[in-house]
Write a structure and sequence with these properties.
- The structure is a single chain.
- The chain is built from 6 helices and 4 strands; from the N terminus they run ββααββαααα.
- By secondary structure, the chain is mainly alpha-helical.
- The protein has a two-stranded antiparallel sheet. A two-stranded antiparallel ribbon has the order 3-4.
- A hairpin with a 2-residue loop joins strand 3 and strand 4.
- Helix 1 runs antiparallel to helix 2, helix 1 runs parallel beside helix 6 and helix 2 packs across helix 4.
- It is globular and about 45 Å long.
Amino acid sequence: MNQSGSEYIADDSWLRIGRIDNAIDNLHMMVYFLKTFSDVKKWKWAIIALHQTLYSFFIIALLSCGQKVAKGKHLISIIEAAKLLGDPKNLSVWDDAKPLKMVSEQASAFVALVRMLRNNFEHFNTDHWSIEIIMVEDIFRKMIPVIRFIALESNTVSFTEEQEFTIKGLVSQLETLISMPNGSISV
């Protein structure tokens, strides 16, 4: 695998995918689930893709800032990654890097995404579960600006022109799909 994380090669025997292409693929899957599924079950998969997108971009940003992202054999948690990205000291490798600062509504949505939605879908251990769709849509409205910020505005990740174009297009599609204006996270 290429060190930059940007290599993507598929042939009959191997699938090779780098970190950046993995993050972009997660973004693609969010768009796919929201566009193509006609029933409410799409939200389960979109939530998992949203979590994976955030997590993968957080890890890429931390790595590009020279931060350690593993504890022993395991990656740090998504919540630990977000905290590290919020501290300017952890971004000091780049002069123009901006820390992640979620407003309180975004922070609450982030915690709900991780602790309630994603973890329960991933480790489903109940017989039945009901989730209000309006709450899920609200979480998406609050998290998509976080994706936009960390991937495109924080100055912590370098992309090829093609990757940046793809990310911008996918984020725009997500903003349209969930009827939110183009905007950025407050910093």
